[in-house]
Amino acid sequence: MLMRFGVVSGLGWLIDFCLFVTLTAFKSPVWLANTASATAAVLFVFFVSVRRIFEYQGHYLLGKLVRYIVYQAIAILTASVIIDLLTHHLGLAPIVSKIIVTPLTFYCNFQFMSFITTGRLRLR
After folding, report:
1. 76: Cβ contacts below 8 Å, ≥ 6 apart
2. How far apart are CA 44 and CA 9, in angstroms?
3. What pLDDT score does 94 carry?
4. Are the CB atoms for 98 and 34 separated by under 8 Å?
């Protein structure tokens, strides 16, 4: 399951990465570029993975989507601030900052998707 989520998240990350690079190339603030690009990516990942990876067959998908959006709003804002801090205070290139933050966001997203679809975390 983690591998399949990794493939879908990888595609989401490509969407995120390409949009982030494009927006920063047009001089968008780093935190805003990450917020926009990550939002597009997490919506893609949610709709592809909720039924195909986590095999959620229940109803009330709207409620899960609302919880996912609230979680992602907090997670994206947090990651965006961290990326902005790494970029401006450590002098890293925006894309390097984003790459550093990505493994943590991937793991947190996997755990949250598992929790809202199965009711449990997948620590293994």
Report:
1. 34, 35, 38, 39, 42
2. 9
3. 93
4. yes
Q: Return contacts of 116-120, CB within 8 angstroms, 24+ apart.
A: 116/64, 116/67, 116/68, 117/50, 117/54, 117/55, 117/56, 117/64, 118/54, 118/56
**pTM to 2 decimals?**
0.74
pLDDT of residue 90: 95
CB atoms within 10 A of CB 74: 10
Q: What's the average pLDDT block by block, 10 residues per block, for the chain (124 residues)?
A: 72 93 95 92 80 58 80 92 95 94 87 80 68
What end-to-end distance do the CA atoms of the chain give, in Å? 11
| CA Rg value for the chain | 15
For residue 70, count other CB atoms closer than 10 A to its CB. 10
